[in-house]
Design brief:
381 residues; alpha+beta; conserved putative lor/sdh protein from methanococcus maripaludis s2 fold; Elongation Factor Tu (Ef-tu), domain 3; OB fold (Dihydrolipoamide Acetyltransferase, E2P); four-stranded antiparallel β-sheet; 23 strands
Length: 381
């Protein structure tokens, strides 16, 4: 076994051979710090959600009669003008009922006319018979028969005068209803637009009120967006939105929030209110019912000095970043402006181009010497 002085000598020789001083035996390795430069760029603060597309102006076309459809578009996508026929029903049964009601009305009026004519004729004859009877030119039996005929004619006229107006009034109501049904057998577009959903089919029997199709102005669309309860304080009418759809990668559509419903409901485990947003034309590609992603731009700065959001840490309520000077880091207090999920705006405390630690590693402290690794510069091949 070697003595202590010999051991120390051997240790010194070994340290000297590897180029490390005796003091260096206890030094910790340097922390590697990913570093990025603070740069100016546009910064957006967004609320991400989803929603669906719908026409600003749309209508459900429902049946106004019971009957069989004989004409209807085979599929959605047909553009129509205001007043254009879009659905037709078999009106033959209604036409037959209407003709029968009109015929019955004419018959009732004719019966009243005939009763009045007959009563007038019988009155004239009875008056003549009465004069002849007074002149002893007519037997009592003939006179009595004439008076009996007059009573019968007057009774028939009185009945017709009471009954016919009631029957005619009822028939006219029936005729009016049947005429409306006949007219309803032809359905016309209430405005110019596109049939975007067809529910019923040709030759199908439908009942009054059944849904036939949906018509909308697809040149003017809007978004019905789900606004999470936690975001209601940030989303306001007038804010811009950007819409995207997985059916069209790389495309987007712009719009503006127009209305927020003051009512929160539970929808698929989310507490949400509905927001309506008008979409700026052109909106080609989007169709009613499409589920889309919505970014609501709640704030934006066109030229914000910014650092990664993960670069910011707090002490006693004060925001700091680790600014890099050479190989040494300094905890630098900063004032923040807008903050998004990925970036924070620095309004004071840093200059453009200042280097900061993008994601402070564990154990990093103020004044520490680090191994700098730039992550915002392209790697040299």
């Amino acid at each position: 076994m070697c003595s202590r002085p010999v051991a120390l000598a051997l240790c010194g020789a070994l340290l000297s051979a590897v180029g490390v001083t005796a003091m260096g035996c206890n030094r910790r390795p340097r922390v590697e710090a990913p570093v990025i430069a603070a740069r100016r760029a546009a910064l957006r603060v967004e609320v991400a959600t989803n929603g669906s597309v719908e026409p600003v102006n749309d209508v459900e076309i429902r049946s106004r009669v019971d009957g069989r459809i004989i004409e209807i578009p085979d599929e959605a996508g047909r553009r129509v003008n205001a007043g254009e026929e879009i659905v037709r029903f078999d009106a033959a049964p209604i036409a037959a009922e209407l003709a029968a009601a009109e015929s019955e009305r004419l018959a009732a009026l004719e019966a009243l006319r005939a009763a009045r004519a007959k009563a007038a004729q019988v009155r004239e004859r009875a008056a003549a018979d009465a004069r002849l009877f007074q002149q002893a030119a007519l037997t009592r039996e003939a006179y009595s028969a004439s008076q009996m005929a007059l009573q019968d004619a007057e009774a028939q006229l009185a009945y017709q005068e009471r009954d016919v107006p009631l029957r005619v009034a009822s028939l006219e109501l029936r005729i009016k209803a049947l005429t409306a049904q006949r007219d309803a057998a032809v359905v016309r577009a209430p405005f110019a637009g596109t049939i975007f959903q067809v529910i019923a089919k040709r030759n199908q029997m439908v009942r009054l009120g059944d849904l036939l199709l949906r018509l909308g102005d697809l040149d003017h669309l809007r978004v019905r967006a789900n606004i999470d309860q936690v975001d209601l304080g940030r989303v306001q009418p007038g804010q811009r939105i950007v819409v995207s759809a997985n059916a069209f990668p790389g495309r987007s559509w712009d719009g503006v929030i127009t209305e927020l419903a003051p009512h929160v409901v539970l929808k698929e485990s989310r507490s949400v209110a509905e927001g309506l947003a008008r979409l700026d034309p052109p909106t080609d590609g989007l169709v009613p019912g499409m589920i889309i992603d919505v970014q609501v731009i709640v704030a934006e700065a066109p030229n914000a000095l910014q650092v990664p959001a993960q670069a910011v840490f707090y002490r006693n309520g004060q925001a700091y970043v680790y600014q890099v000077d050479g190989n040494r880091v300094h905890a630098t207090p900063v004032q923040l402006g807008l903050t998004s999920v990925t970036a924070s705006e620095v309004t004071s405390g840093l200059s453009d181009g200042a280097l900061v630690v993008a994601v402070p590693p564990e154990g990093l402290e103020d004044g520490m010497v680090v191994d700098v690794r730039r992550i915002d510069e392209p790697k040299t091949p």
